[in-house]
Design brief:
Elements: H1 2-29, H2 36-39, E1 40-48, E2 61-69, E3 74-82, E4 90-94, E5 105-108, E6 117-122, H3 125-132, E7 137-141, E8 150-153, E9 155-156
Antiparallel strand pairs: 1-2, 1-9, 2-3, 3-6, 4-5, 4-7, 7-8
Amino acid sequence: MIFNIRVIIAVALTATFSVISACNSTRSNTPTIATTADSTIMLVARLASSNEVPPNTSAASGMVKASFDTQTNLLSWTVTYTGLTGPASAGHFHGPAASGMNAGVVLPLSGDLQSPIKGMATLNTAQTNDLMAGKWYMNLHTSANPNGEIRGQVSVKP
C-alpha cells in the first residue's frame, strides 16, 4: 500500500513538473507579435478630376485603398479607376501637400498602369509622418491631361 502511494505521488509530481516545464518553455520561446489589426492602418483616397489643381473636366473617377504596416513601414496599395480619357501614362503619390496644393512626386507607380494598379514600398520616417498627417495625394496622368487627370488626398480610413 505504501509502495502504491509513493508511485502515485511520484507519477503526479513528474506530470506536474513536465506541465510546468512545457508552459515555461513555450512562454520563453514564443515571441510577442502584434496582430495585423494592431499594426496595420488602412488608408483611402477618392480620385476625381475636381480634385486636380487646377481641376479639369474629365468624367473619370477612381479609388486608392492602401494599408500601412507600422511595424515594417510597408505601404501596400491598390488603385482602381474608370473613365480616363485614354490610357494612364503615369501615376504617383505626391507630397507633402494639403488638399488643394501641389507637391513633388514622393513615390512613382511602376509597372502596368491598367486598373487595378497594385504596388508596395517601404517608407522612411519623413514619408511615414507626412502620409499619416494626410499630406500625400495620388494622381493619375493621361496624354490628354499630362499634369494629372484624377487626384485624391490620401487619408486614414475612419
